[in-house]
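TASK: fixed-backbone design
INPUT:
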């Protein structure tokens, strides 16, 4: 399963009303560290398919959502479960540290 593209229009439906936990990657096209994390995010999406969704939200396109969740630095990763934030990690991480920080 691949990552879900998240927008201001589908955030509530795809994240807050999700029937499984969802890892949201807050990123931007111009962000070098975000590009470094992309393969790790893709790996997580593949490994956790069926157990967890993985979504990507471009902060330039959905600044309202980024502001609502206090995203000051990217990449930022938030794990949502039942519409609530369960874990957060900021910056470049290896996969194990990212999953540990998110309590995933």
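OUTPUT:
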């Amino acid at each position: 399963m691949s990552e879900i593209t998240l927008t201001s229009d589908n955030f509530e439906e795809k994240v807050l009303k999700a029937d499984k936990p969802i890892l949201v990657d807050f990123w931007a096209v111009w962000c070098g560290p975000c590009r470094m994390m992309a393969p790790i995010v893709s790996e997580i999406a593949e490994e956790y398919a069926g157990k967890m969704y993985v979504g990507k939200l471009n902060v330039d396109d959905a600044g309202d959502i980024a502001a609502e969740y206090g995203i000051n630095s990217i990449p930022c990763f938030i794990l949502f479960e039942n519409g609530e934030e369960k874990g957060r990690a900021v910056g470049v991480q290896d996969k194990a540290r990212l999953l540990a920080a998110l309590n995933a």
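COMMENT: The CA atoms of residues 59 and 66 lie 6 Å apart.
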